[in-house]
Amino acid sequence: MHAARAGTLRLVDTLPAAVRPARIAEVERANQAAAVLPELTAQSLFAATVANSLEGGPAGVLPADSRRRLVAAAVRLGIREFDAHLIIAMVQERARTERTPRARTMQPAERVQRTMRSGSHSPDAARGVSPATLLFLAIVVAALLFGAAARWLSGS
Length: 156
Known about the structure:
The protein has about 160 residues and is mostly helical. The chain has 8 helices and no strands.
């Protein structure tokens, strides 16, 4: 129908075979360099902002209007709304679970960096609750709920 025009995109590899391995290696190096996040990312900056916005000391309270404002700021930084809420939750949890004097004197940005580097964000891990204890408690709760549901269904 239409005649091919100059500058039409062609999906053909135009690199000579001898140049391809070097170009592939160059692209792989660029991909590896891009995969390493710098120490200070948009997420860590946002987390520091959240930490500075928390109210109520160790309670880690964030009023709804502040949360909306922070999420909008995160979106402007290129952070997805869902991720912004996760970062807020992480910062609030850290504020609520860190009870050591060192944690209270740390600057919010330092606290965020420490949180992002630490492997465990679980308050249970900090309290020393074993997985076996948690499993036992879950089974007991499940049995109680099952019994209550059976009694309710049977009309007793």
